[in-house]
Amino acid sequence: MAANDPATRAEPSSTTDRNVKHVVLGNLLFQTWYQSIYPEDLVSKDTDRLYVCRWCFRYSCDAHAYTKHTRLCPHRQSPPGVKVYEQGGYSVWELDGEHHKLYAQNLSLFAKLFLDHKSVFFDVVSFLYYLLVYSDPNDPDSNYHVLGFFSKEKLSWDANNLACILVFPPYQHKQLGKLLMGVSYKISSWERDRSLIGGPERPLSEMGRRSYSRFWEDRVARYLLLHGRKAEDAEDFAVPQKSKSLKGLKRKHAHEFMTVQDIGLATGMLTEDVITALKGLSVVQPATPSKKRKSKDWNEATNAGHGTFVTVRKTTVLEWAKSHHMALWDPVKDEGFHGKWAPTDSDVSDGDSNESGDG
Ligand SMILES: [Zn+2]
Fold first, then answer.
1. 71: CA distance to ligand 1 center in Å?
2. What are the pLDDT digits (tens) for 237-273?
3. Distance, CA 110 to ligand 1 centroid (Å)?
4. Inter-residue contact 334 to 356 (CB < 8 Å)
5. Are 134 and 147 in contact (CB under 8 A)?
6. CA of 24 to the centre of ligand 1 (A)
7. pLDDT over threshold 50, residue 353
8. Is residue 340 domain-resident?
9. pLDDT in tens, 151-197
10. d(CA 335, CA 340)
């Protein structure tokens, strides 16, 4: 299994190799992209329209049976599992594939219509699923929508924080993939042994790679710009176009030495992913320190035999952030987490945990 595209993708595969051509999800009708593995006795090879319950992902080729089900669906009021995150109408629900086997299988069958390669897709028992749900805050009586999900192996030897991610096609291009990736990094930062850092399961699909590269670029850019600052300082950065913000950036930590590993530890990212992000940001310049600038850190690091030195200017990172319309503060908020992941008072006031620095 590989993390797949949450944000963008190319044209659907040719229509001939897809058993289901279109799906009806709630009141939405849209095209499928790939073949799924629906049982042939229930879904024939050339199904033009498959009706899928937007709450439990049960399916039927029969519109009448589908309508009947939606009136009685057991998940009509609330998604299965427990809510682990909520912010501005969006919430994330965690469910165990072992306890919600049929749900997880039906979700997987539906997701496969939009995912290219999934080899062990139906081993739902060893996975946790995180549903991205939207409920209109202004209309609490309206039913919720599941917009996408990610799955995660319960026991991953490679410390993968995510196995598969999908934002359903009608909800793509709204930065929701980044929200799910951000939640996956937050959760893994809290549950991991501090020395064990992971990332999405490899290999990444081409589209997964693009989405993750951008997510990592944002993450590293935020760290470079904001680490050591508290969220209360956010107003300084709210309008980065203002020269005041640039001054603020220059003023603090005029010259600072850090290794790629330092950035990885602080952001919960693998070293290789930090390097991917730094390359993508195109903010790295060859280091040519003047005598005046040669710091104690620099001399110590040189003597310790560390590798190549480069310079990154915060102003260049800020330019990148502006031109890429990056939200300076992480859209995933610590205070949005519920239940076992809810922040404690010490988490909030601390400000020094690996992850809270960029939230
Ligand atoms: Zn249902």
1. 8
2. 543 444 444 445 545 556 888 999 999 999 999 999 9
3. 13
4. yes
5. yes
6. 13
7. no
8. no
9. 999 998 888 999 999 999 999 999 999 999 999 999 998 876 555 89
10. 12
124 and 149 both lie in a single domain: yes
For the annotated catalytic residues, the residue numbers are: 201
Write the pLDDT tens digit of every residue in 208-222.
999 999 999 999 999
Q: Which domain holds residue 46?
A: 15-191
Structure-block tokens of residue 312: 């990154």
Flag whether 257 is in a domain.
yes
Does residue 21 sit within a domain? yes
214 lies in the same domain as 90: no
Rounded to the nearest whole angstrom, what is the distance from the C-alpha of residue 63 to the centroid of ligand 1? 13
Burial of 1 (0-12, 13-18, 19+ CB in 10 A): buried
How far, in Å, from the CA of 66 to the mean position of ligand 1? 9
For residue 42, give the nearest of 104, 105, 120 by alpha carbon. Answer: 105
For residue 203, how many other CB atoms are within 10 A of its CB? 12
Residues 280 and 233 in one domain: yes
Beta pairing, strands 310-312 & 90-96: unpaired
ω into 137 cis (within 30 of 0): no
